[in-house]
């Protein structure tokens, strides 16, 4: 079964941690408040509970070419527990499996630029700090 398709010009956010519905609500609220326009297609499906990056890569590789997506974001335990709600960005295309974290406040910039192909995944991943977190191009 292919990964869900995001709505037009939004990024796919898969919930992988199902331990706290209140935390999931807080993540979505923080992401929605971070930008003026919708940037996310939220998927809360237990089939993605605790899914790892390799499983997503395998699932995407098995999908029909027209059903493949280029990147996605995971709302995992770290996302739920950290007050900045850093999503795990995952490259599924150019450098499959490459990741970086993006706090909610930076998500609209990353999502918008990736969804219109204005910038590549590597542009953001290369600008991540020592912890692997993108905090803007000036280090936020």
Automatic annotation (TrEMBL):
Xref: Pfam families: DUF6924 (PF21962)
InterPro entries registered for this protein in UniProt: DUF6924
Residues annotated as domain DUF6924: 11-137
Protein name stated in the entry: DUF6924 domain-containing protein
High-level lineage: Bacteria, Bacillati, Actinomycetota, Actinomycetes, Kitasatosporales
């Amino acid at each position: 079964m292919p990964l869900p398709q995001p709505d037009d010009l939004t990024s796919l956010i898969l919930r992988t941690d199902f331990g706290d519905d209140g935390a999931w609500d807080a993540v979505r609220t923080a992401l929605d408040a971070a930008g003026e326009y919708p940037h996310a297609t939220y998927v809360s499906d237990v089939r993605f509970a605790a899914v790892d990056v390799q499983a997503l890569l395998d699932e995407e590789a098995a999908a029909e070419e027209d059903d493949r997506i280029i990147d996605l974001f995971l709302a995992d335990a770290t996302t739920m527990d950290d007050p900045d709600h850093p999503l795990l960005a995952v490259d599924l295309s150019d450098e499959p499996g490459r990741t970086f974290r993006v706090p909610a406040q930076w998500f609209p910039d990353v999502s918008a630029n990736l969804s219109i192909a204005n910038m590549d995944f590597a542009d953001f991943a290369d600008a991540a700090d020592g912890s692997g977190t993108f905090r803007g191009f000036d280090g936020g």
